[in-house]
TrEMBL record:
This is Uncharacterized protein. Keywords: Membrane, Transmembrane, Transmembrane helix. The chain crosses the membrane at residues 32-50. It comes from Geomonas anaerohicana. The keyword Transmembrane helix applies.
Amino acid sequence: MKKLLSFAAVTLLTSALLDPLIQSGLDKPVPWLRDIGMFVAGAACLYILVKYHRQL
């Protein structure tokens, strides 16, 4: 469970930060709702990982 949460947190946070750069480089509109959702989900995974680190 710990590996899944850490993998999800890293992947979602990295994707949320790099996706606007990729989309603007391709001259496409940036899907802000999707990026904000990915950032919130990654932050939630990181929060769960830190808060419950002893039980995992």
